[in-house]
Amino acid sequence: xxxxxxxxxxxxxxxxxxELLKRYLMQQGFVVCCAGTLAEAKxxxxxxxxxxxxxxxxxxxQKGWDLFQAKADLPPLPAVIFMSxxxxxxxxxxxxxxxxxxxxxxxxxxEELIFRIQKILKHMPGRTLTxxxxxxHPQKRLLKQGQxxxxxxxxETKLLAYFSQRLYQVISRQELARHVFPQASNxxxxxxxxxxxxxxxxxxxANPQFLIxxxxxxxxxxx
Length: 223
What we know:
- The protein is an alpha/beta fold.
- The protein has two domains: 7-122, Response regulator (Rossmann fold, 3-Layer(aba) Sandwich); 129-221, Winged helix-like DNA-binding domain superfamily/Winged helix DNA-binding domain (Arc Repressor Mutant, subunit A).
- It contains eight helices and eleven strands.
- A five-stranded parallel beta sheet has the order 2-1-3-4-5, sandwiched between helices. A four-stranded antiparallel beta sheet has the order 6-7-8-9, with no helix packed on it.
- The model has no long low-confidence stretch (mean pLDDT 87).
């Protein structure tokens, strides 16, 4: 398994919600597996290299909290986001105190969930991003095909590095102009640099698979 592919485990006994989340996350480029009970979740954690667990609390037989009590019998736990209808401050405090990275109250907007997942991924050290046959090392700011570096201009490097911090999120042209090209006098600079970066990132720049437009709202970078 390539370590750049993000595997997410959804643990929830609500079949409909589980399938809706699975489809949405897969559309965003994640690899997703599901469990309806904590026992099934433990099996999945033993079989797959999961990076993020979306964990309901009110599960049958055992509660989501119990996963942390069983961690001695499991591989090191990945990042956990509790998702629950229990919305009292003490519930959130308990979840975070157990070691979860985040806590989101049902019902929630799927886009908010993506934002929270991305926030966690952003702080995973040393993760290499993969775009087809290319890899990008955000810390080294190095784009490579195999062992061969692909030259990037300073502006292209800044642009790709900025996107790598906000994977799967739509970033507006205005935001890119403000944070990546603050000296630019025209917002069209963003479109020009996007076009140039696509020529190095995409196999077919006219039909991009990774750096794509999002309904005139801006651009989004996916693995």
